[in-house]
Task: inverse folding
């Protein structure tokens, strides 16, 4: 269950990162509120998962999921540039997250 919560928290990390961009420095109300809600869910999920998972592994997985998804959303919907190097790098991040998950979450 801790791994599932961690993955969901990582997805919400991408949500707060994108809404932070959309808030334009907290000058837009709705994206600012979305940021606050998704941030609390994301960090709360990470905190809950840390009760059962090692901090280094959990934090790396959480950050990796959030970073990779945020980059993909940026490239697909927000006009961020796409390059072969970016795609290879994202593949490496996803591979690292999978590897950490397969390595297990024992203490």
Result:
């Amino acid at each position: 269950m801790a791994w599932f919560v961690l993955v969901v928290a990582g997805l919400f990390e991408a949500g707060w990162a994108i809404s932070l961009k959309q808030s334009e420095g907290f000058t837009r109300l709705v994206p600012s509120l979305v940021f606050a809600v998704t941030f609390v869910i994301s960090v709360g999920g990470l905190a809950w998962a840390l009760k059962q998972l090692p901090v280094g592994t959990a934090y790396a997985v959480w950050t990796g999921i959030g970073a990779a998804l945020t980059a993909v959303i940026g490239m697909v919907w927000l006009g961020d540039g796409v390059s072969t190097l970016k795609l290879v790098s994202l593949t490496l991040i996803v591979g690292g997250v999978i590897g950490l998950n397969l390595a297990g979450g024992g203490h």
Q: What stands out?
A: The mean pLDDT is 93.
